[in-house]
Design a protein that fits this description.
- Among the domains are: 31-121, no CATH class; 129-206, GMP Synthetase, Chain A, domain 3 (2-Layer Sandwich), CATH 3.30.300; 274-368, no CATH class.
- The strands form five sheets. Strands 3-4-7-5-6 form a five-stranded mixed β-barrel.
- The longest helix has 27 residues, at 123-149.
- The protein has 484 residues and is α+β, with helices and mostly antiparallel strands.
- The chain is built from ten helices and 16 strands.
- The protein is elongated and about 85 Å long.
Amino acid sequence: MGCGNCGTTTGGKPSGCKSNGGCSTGGCNRMNVFDWLSTLPLQDTLKPFPVIEVSFSKGSRKDFYRNNTNHILEKGDYIALEGVGGFDIGQVSLTGELVKLQMKKYSVENNSQLKRVLHPATEEEIAQYHKQKERESEVLVRARAMARSYNLQMKLAEAEIQADGKKATFFYTADQRVDFRELIKAYASEFRVKVEMRQIGARQESGKVGGIGSCGRELCCSTWLTDFKSVNTTAARYQNLSINQTKLSGQCGRLKCCLNYELDTYMDALSVFPDNAEQIQTVQGTAYLQKRDIFKNLMWYSFPGSSKQYPLAITRVKEIIVQNKQGIKPDELQAVELELNTGKAVKVDVGFVNDVGQITLRSLEKGNRKKKPGGGNNKPQLNADGSTQTTERPQNRPARPQGARPDNRQRGAEPGSQPQRPQQPKREGSKPNQPKNEGAQQPNRRPPQPQKDNPGNNNQQARRNRGNNPNRNNDAKPPEPTAE
């Protein structure tokens, strides 16, 4: 989180940063600005803008300095600056014409009160600068212990020591006014420096400390967010979020800054909803508005003492408001139904809404189920003469015993009629019909059709040849001949 994880520096650049001072996570360069005007050529008569932007200590603080030297400074150079009672070391973060826009953004005037740039930093000054930075962690721990001993209601967030070691700035947070005059004297005598106390907010403290948010990413305040705007619960109400302090609060203890990210989009979407629609009058009573759904353009209403919620379209709500102004009360709320698959709003012909108020059960009724092709019956296809259409039996397949074939032919079908359903394979394990009584007369059996002189289709010849089939079980009893 920030430059603190970059480790020691080598050659004036952090050794931990693979991009030499510009971390890909954004922790080291969260206050950086891309100089998109740096490549623009200047005329010979023009001079570069004399003010530069300099960043200090972990990239959490910036300031503007006037460059009256003849040195051409580039981004990332370490320079010696005018400090309190000595000098300080900073890193150039922005130069050129874009500094004008940054000064206008932060309301900084280009006057003589700006501090000056002394010269580019030398190796001895840079070594002294890093030595003081290593000392900051020890000073911060000792300063917190001393603040607790004085029983002061304050929290120290960061300690920044000047490059020459003559000044120390302590950043703290406090909910109330704190009298730290005795504490400053103790710090001055303990650390042998000039002490400056600077109060910051809880959001700035989170930006200095860093951390992981509930979204699983680094905190916005510690990576890229520099301007902290006020956040209130009204932004959560516009976005239909539950007012839960635990879920809406960040690690700083304040409302999350990300509540303002999509607020403008919600405000634009809510502009199409009617105003003064918190309650509408019906014959059943007064219905109160529960929520607005900007994704489906629905408004949810409910009656007092009932858990049912009725989703109404925006046009329907506007019609009811106009009728109420005329003294007319509608008989019922014409709710809409939300389809399970598409999520679109469809008008409901039955005024039923479940207790949850999100979907109805009409899509689950039997009437809306799709029928399977073919009707799901296994009736075989018939030929033109009314006989059952069957496939050719393999030669090595054993013959079916008598009475095992079910009579699936349609009774009463005339020759030449078209089959009603396509042929489907038989299900395994189907129960065959009972064997026919050979001696009894079948009253509903069709009269025998004249057979052609084809021994392969002669039923009697097929019965006589069953005993000669080598694949047939000879232990089975042969069928008795029928009377002609």
